[in-house]
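Ex. 9. Protein: Cut9 interacting protein-like protein Scn1.
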Amino acid sequence: MTASFPWHIGVFDAHCHPTDTMSSIAAVPDMKARALTVMATRAQDQQLVANVADDLGIKSHRVDSWGSKERIVPSFGWHPWFAYQMFDEAEYGGKQTLDDDAKVSHYKQVLSPAPDDCNFISSLPDPIPFSVFLAQTRQHLERFPLALVGEIGLDKSFRIPQPPLHEHHETRDSSLTPGGREGRRLSPHCVSLEHQKVILTAQLNLAGQLRRAVSVHGVQAHGVLFETLRATWKGHERKPMSKRERKRRGISAEEAADERDDSPKPYPPRICLHSYSGHPSSLSQYFDASVPADVYVSFSTAINYSDRAASTTSQSIKVVPDDRVLVESDLHIAGEDMDKYLEDVIRRVCDIKEWSLEEGVQRLRSNWERFAFGGERR
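Predicted structure tokens for Cut9 interacting protein-like protein Scn1:
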């Protein structure tokens, strides 16, 4: 007999996209999950996430003080799938908009292979200056002091979609937020990793300046992702406090390890590797004592428990320290299905970690609270 699920303890979705289906937002207050960490990804959903946070956003890091309508932790960021829609105005003489020739030059530079179809290039969105996006993101983060930065990251395999056909406009599902793939065929063009790295690094720097946690996407680029993250904390590595210094200050080794400097840094204080799909052996580098950011690893049924990924995912869950595991749905629609996906992945994690459901849900709650808001490990 399946054990009843302890929703009353508090279940927290570390990464999801319900603003991709705005009609589903009405279901959020009735969900069993206590709170959703909602990601922005592109131009079309940044303000939508802010609007939802106005209505359903949390007001405090103290979970037990939340009202019934405090259900959303907003996150603002630009996903690597859409990195090609950004340009660095420094490369174009400070221009805030690109003319047709500059637009062609931009897309030939950041897409691989470089497109030679003028009709394809003209169908792509007019790229926006990255500095403008960063300024808007800073405004969102300052307006929502408990907001995170996400979804950001690197993706080596994603190919941008072909432009929509005329028939697509006539049959388009109007409940979906524009800008996604929506079933379109994929082109042969990928976004260059160098361009993605520039976009990612600037967002990591912003998160570091404002001391916000980040939710990071990584697909087939796990080595490059770690190196990009590590470059932001170079020169800030943690150094163990000597026994003599701990004795002089009258603190324990655990207290010394938990000391945090909240001054602005070029790297974020906390990082979630969302729906981690790398090899389990690659995780140890993130938990090295010298890493100054606290790294968490999140798992989802939707991404991590396909037939091919299930075995590797279970190995990764075993490797991740108990106080760094998170769960997520990664779904684009809120409601009963999101709750079901969360319950499913939590049961899997508890089985692998050999936790009872009550112990596991409490651990995962504590982990999410530390990831989202900081604070000492429990």
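Check your answer against this statement. The chain is about 35% helix and 15% strand.
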